[in-house]
Specification:
The complex is a heterodimer of chains A (about 350) and B (about 325). With about 350 residues, chain A is mostly helical. Chain A has 13 helices and three strands. Chain A has one domain: ABC transporter involved in vitamin B12 uptake, BtuC (Orthogonal Bundle), CATH 1.10.3470.10. In chain A, strands 1-2-3 form a three-stranded antiparallel sheet. In chain A, helix 5 packs antiparallel against helix 10 and helix 11 runs parallel beside helix 13. Chain B is built from 14 helices and no strands. The chains are: A mainly alpha (about 350), B mainly alpha (about 325). Chains A and B meet through helix 6, helix 7 and helix 13 of A and helix 6, helix 7 and helix 13 of B.
Chain lengths: ~350, ~325
Amino acid sequence: MRSARAIDGRRVLRFSCGLEIRVGNLAAAAALLTGAILLALVSLGSGITETGFREFLRFLAGEPASADQAYALWTVRLPRIVMGFMAGWAVALAGAMLQSITRNPLADPGLLGLSQGSMTTIMLLLVFVPAAPKVAVALAALAGGLAVALLLLWLVGGERASGLAILLMGIAVETVLSSVGSLLLLYTPPETSLALADWMAGSLFQANWNAIATFAPLFCASLLGLFLLGRATSAYDLGNEFAMALGEPVRRSRPLLLIFAVLLSASAVTAVGPLTFLGVLAPQLAGFLSPATGRARLFLAALTGGILVVAADTLARSVVRDLPLPIGLGLTLIGVPLFFFALRLQALRRLQLH
Amino acid sequence: MRRRALLPAVLSLLLLAALGLHLFLGRDAPPVTEALTALSRGEAGSYDQSVVLFQRLPRALIAIYAGAMTAAAGCVLQGLVRNPLASPSTLGINSGATLAVIAGVFLLDLGLEAQGFAALVGAVGGFLASLAVTRLAGRNNDPRGLSLILSGALVSMLLVGTTNALMLSDPMRRADFLSWVSGNVNHVYIDRLYAFWWIGVLCLLILGALSRALTLILLGSEKAASAGVNVRPVSTLALAAAVVGAGSAVAICGPIGFIGLVVPHLVRPFAGANVALALPCCLLLGAGISLLADFGAREAFHPYVLHTGLVMDLLGGLAFAMIVKRFYLSPAVRDQA
């Protein structure tokens, strides 16, 4: 491993196996990881019950804690942090991948109708088979997302279609599915309807260790997928023809990327409901922090996504104590101002360059 | 030329036919004589007469207003934004108005009148937000203005999400507004129509007065400017009128999609680029289609009455897909891109 300069003059670290990492990206990743840990500590200490990191350490050391402190830490806050981080990670990663294959900075699992597809099938399942086991729900979500993805591929006609066409078709599919969703909401009994709507707004209330245990393998798989598929995304960023010219097997890797994104978004929808806008927000913010390509871009985007969700949840718990603020709203409150701020700064930076 | 002048007459007949269908036909329809007596006397003497007067007629009027306003707004928007996918529902106008009304009711306890104005403010806000996101997303050189549609969709999703979250905060009121939020033509909302109809008429008058200038602008801003049109103020005023008109329709019966997107496409092959002709045609056809859709929603699954807005949303998504297929996926366009 040695330090060197890339062709564009940026400092990089070269490993003996040929792997190359930009120092800037590495620093950003380290900063984000530190931020995530700090945020988790703050999040542990915020809420109605007076407890925090110190109690948590003591608890780990084997000292007995009071029952409600243990409950707050171990059953409520920690699962929410872990679950929120993993879900945010998955959605942001899916968004970053979709943005590469559609070549559009506004692509998002929600906008393409993928999460809507998952939601619709889950809702149908919950309405018709209320006692369905968790596995069935997860499978239904996956099937719905995949169905939408296949429908999209079929509608836009294979690999020749441009990314914009996919996006527009996605919006069309999303419109149809969301009206089906509203139809279900309207004509189910009020209790079912309220429960469905609650879940659709996205929440971390149901986070528990079982759910985390089912999500964790996927989280690990996403790391693997990030490593294997990450390089392809940087080829897609240049456009379909360029990707083909660079030797990217477009016919094979494009559906693979799409399916992987569907898998991620479907599992996040199953776990916490849709996280609107996160798929656009996190990659943009990450790109603002440290411009990157390929694997580094995906990694930074996913990390930012996780942090955003944990931050939104912390905000929801510490600011509005009595009212259960849906995570989607918290995300909006934190994310949108940040987004505009970042875009504005980027525009200013561009002005200075020219 | 004469054939074109005939078009509004044909569409008026269509509208009348749809109105007749809506008022006099359907399952459990009161006898036509009873209905006519009720309509001519203006008061109800029997149960059948009151059904016509207090259920069917208000429903028809609301459907006509909503259809006409959204179609007119769609016509003007598609022209001025130069995008075949522009409509009140794709540019964040409907969702902005919905959010404003819901926020007004849930957070500030607004009364009926204030709700209407909240809807207008929300409509303008939603539209401006879409424009702002487009500008910030920074793909201004996009020739077919697609980033506007994308930003519109994003802004709509965001606004709808916020609306749903707000509604969850108060389950009691949620039950009251759940059907309104998804776009429901219902006789209950007739007092909203009484309160807000003048807004729509005002917007239509403005658009009508501007129609000649708008036609020139559609030919190209430079040409319009050289013909003596003050391009900027005219387009701003026309956009404002279209957006506010669509907002007033939302204030009455909630967001209704589809018509604003599709009706201009149906009218254009017959009416051509002349706004002075296309606008009234859009109005008539929009009202007619809205009446027919409402009739379908009412009769399709008889004892149950579907929500007109949802029926429209379903149709609208399909129409959107077809328009995308035709304008953006045809081989000629693909080679261009």
